[in-house]
Amino acid sequence: MSILAIYKESGELVEVIEDYEEIAQRLSSIGVRFERWNTERELPFSATQEQVLEAYREEVDRIVKEFGFKSIDVVSLTPDSPRKEELRNMFLSEHTHSDFEVRFFVDGCGTFYLHPDDKVYVVLCEKGDFISVPANTKHWFDMGTKPFFKAIRFFSIPEGWVANFTGSDISKRIPSHDQVFELR
Ligand SMILES: [Fe+2]
User: Fold this and answer.
1) How far is CA 56 from the centre of its chain?
2) What pTM value is reported for the model?
3) What integer pLDDT is reported at residue 21 of this predicted model?
4) Which pLDDT does position 18 carry in this prediction?
5) Ligand 1 centre from 136 Cα, in Å?
6) CA neighbours within 13 Å on the CB side: how many for 92?
7) With a cut of 70, which residues of the chain have pLDDT below it?
8) How far is the CA of 92 from the centre of ligand 1 (A)?
9) For residue 79, what pLDDT is reported?
């Protein structure tokens, strides 16, 4: 079950929201789009990129058209990945991008941390969740110590994906994905 947990910058928990409509509404107020797509399609974790994109063709086409994305790919990670720590650490500090960061979780889960004002909006995304983080919004992402997810990534410009780190240590004060997972 996806949740939205809101924290003060000090790391104090303010509230936890579990209702999907309310999560979408609260995120919309900070410019973040959150949708739940129908995932009843039979798709094994071993499905290829082509099979995943074919299964979600309708939704993917809609998003590509709406945002004008130029490329898409499918990324997956499992707890036995030898690069899991390196990949986890890559986006664990607060940063921004000059492009949207848009993901659809085909399987598994991961946690986005959005810091648009004096609160941190922690979104535990699960299978079926679509999220778009606007350009220049401060955020970070935690896949946890035992990453398990498969996600479609949407890109408009190659250089838009470069992370501009803010230098803030705020991500150390907010619970990790593993801890947020326990709030469910
Ligand atoms: Fe990012």
Assistant:
1) 18
2) 0.95
3) 96
4) 96
5) 10
6) 17
7) none
8) 9
9) 96
Secondary structure E strands in 48-177: 71-77, 95-96, 101-114, 119-126, 129-133, 139-142, 148-155, 164-165
Taking the CA atoms of 151, 155, 159 and 165 in sequence, report the sign of the dihedral they define.
negative
CA of 97 to the centre of ligand 1 (A): 6
Number of domains into which the chain is organized:
1
Residues 47 and 8: their CA atoms lie apart, in Å, by 40
CA dist., res. 149 & res. 128, Å (int)? 11
DSSP 19-64: -HHHHHHHHHTTT-EEEE----S---TT--HHHHHHHTHHHHHHHH
Number of Cβ atoms within 10 Å of the Cβ of 150: 21
Residue count of the chain, please give it.
Answer: 184
pLDDT of residue 87: 93
Domain of residue 91, CATH code: 2.60.120.10
Could you tell me the residue range of the domain that residue 88 belongs to? 3-181
Which of helix, strand or coil describes residue 175?
Answer: coil
